[in-house]
Each structure stands twice: as C-alpha cells, then as structure tokens.
C-alpha cells in the first residue's frame, strides 16, 4: 500500500543522524514547497506525515511568528514536541507558546484557532511515549540534545 510506505520510510530515515545535519537544506526545501503550495504542503506532507504551520505571537514583540512543524495526532488534539532537531536549546516557538494561551494553526486548506496547554506531570510521560511511538526520531534527538527535557504542547480547537 503506497500510502503507508512513505511514512514508514520517513520514520526510519528520521532516526538517522545525517538527517539532522541537513536540517538547513530540509528547512529551505520546506519553505520553497510551502511557498509554491500557498502553505498547504511541506516536506513532511510529501513524505506522508502530518505537518502544520503554527502562528503564535512572539513573547517579546507580540508580532506573529510562523513555523512549520511535524505534529502528533491525538484524537481531537494535536501534540507538538519541542525537539529543535536535537539542539541543546529549546526552539523559540516553544517559548512563544508557553507565553500564549492561543495560537493559529494551518493544516492543508484549513486555518483554525487553538488553545495551548503545556503537557506536564503524568500526562507528559504518556504524551512523550505517544510521540516517540509516532516519530521514533525523537529518541535520537533527545540523546543528541544532552537529554534536554523537550517541551510538549497540546493544541485544541477553540
């Protein structure tokens, strides 16, 4: 079944360190694809994985900041993991989400507002296990980050 082959291959490739070393090229390609498709598709979509554009107010400037991200479907919710490609630093979008109770999500042809909750405590462990099952590369990124505790967010439609 071709629809299941690409995501399986992408998940396997996502566990390889060389992919992280090419993040700048991947991000540049993603921006180009999103420009051509008016934001409806990105690199992950082509690989059969779910991606979104997240727009959230900058915590310092208040200006809207947009970034493309892999997401983990969770029933009616969306989980975002702040892995930052295995960097030792948290991604700036995660600091902005921490400061914002709401954000805007763009998935394919749909835009919708979401409420933002940082997942903590026992729920965080469950969310982490679910995220790693969905995207095994998170384990490698965790190791490369010096075992930085990735921020995990749950987004729910308003």
Automatic annotation (TrEMBL):
Per the record, what are the reactions this protein catalyses? oxidized coenzyme F420-(gamma-L-Glu)(n) + a quinol + H(+) = reduced coenzyme F420-(gamma-L-Glu)(n) + a quinone
User: What terms describe the molecular function in GO for this protein?
Assistant: coenzyme F420 binding; oxidoreductase activity
Family matches, as Pfam families: F420H2_quin_red
GO terms under cellular component:
plasma membrane
The entry sums up its family as follows: Belongs to the F420H(2)-dependent quinone reductase family.
The name under which this protein is listed is Nitroreductase family deazaflavin-dependent oxidoreductase
Give the species this sequence originates from.
Nocardia huaxiensis
């Amino acid at each position: 079944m071709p629809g299941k082959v690409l995501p399986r291959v992408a998940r396997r490739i996502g566990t390889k360190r060389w992919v992280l070393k090419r993040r700048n090229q991947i991000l540049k390609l993603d921006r180009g694809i999103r420009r051509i498709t008016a934001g409806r598709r990105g690199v992950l979509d082509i690989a059969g994985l779910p991606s979104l554009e997240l727009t959230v107010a900058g915590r310092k400037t208040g200006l809207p900041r947009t970034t493309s991200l892999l997401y983990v479907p969770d029933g009616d919710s969306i989980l975002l993991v702040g892995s930052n490609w295995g960097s030792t630093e948290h991604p700036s979008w995660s600091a902005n989400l921490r400061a914002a109770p709401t954000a805007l999500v763009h998935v394919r042809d749909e835009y919708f507002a979401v409420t933002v909750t940082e997942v903590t405590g026992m729920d965080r462990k469950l969310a982490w296990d679910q995220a790693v099952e969905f995207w095994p590369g998170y384990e490698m990124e965790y190791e490369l980050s010096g075992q930085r505790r990735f921020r995990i967010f749950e987004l729910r439609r308003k």
